[in-house]
Amino acid sequence: MPIPVERLLAGVSQALLEQVLPHVESRAARAQLYAAVEVLRNLERRIEWTREPLEVEAGSIESALRGAAGHLRGAGEAALSARLEGPIAGWPADPVERLAAARAALADAFAALADAPPAAAEAVRPLLGGHLAAQAVRDLAPLSQGFALEEISRG
After folding, report:
1. Tens-digit pLDDT profile for residues 68-115
2. Total-model pTM
3. Helix, strand, or coil here: 24?
4. Residue 22 burial (CB < 10 Å; 0-12/13-18/19+)?
5. Helices 52-74, 78-85: inter-axial angle, 10-degree rounding
6. Are 82 and 42 in contact (CB under 8 A)?
7. Out of 92, 103, 131, 154, which could bridge 64 as a Cys pair, Cβ 3.0 to 4.6 Å?
8. Nearest Cα to Cα of residue 87 among 66, 73, 56
């Protein structure tokens, strides 16, 4: 589950004050650090989590489950197909809750495949794994924007 933005900003502010500030001796640098913390705290009260990444991930899981269920239906595994696809209709509309339900359904799908006939399981695991690979790329893409990671890695 994604970390709420408010919690992330509060954690960064806390780390700056507790871990960085004690090592900053320059009065001007300390003032800049306090200003940065104040900006983070201000954002913490104003920012709203964007729904798009949540909806994209839930949609990707739904597509993967429907694709796997369709393949299983075609292979004569109707009960397993229904187990994968059935819960989708009951997912909540709220994006956070929907994503939680989607992730639970995906975990259940992998658990169901553990007990499925090997040929059926082997045929649909790549369909579900395709979602996981695409999601990993979506999760890492924002990290590649900017030079901060390069600076951090240099120490």
Report:
1. 999 999 999 999 999 999 999 999 998 889 999 999 999 999 999 999
2. 0.67
3. coil
4. exposed
5. 170
6. no
7. 131
8. 66
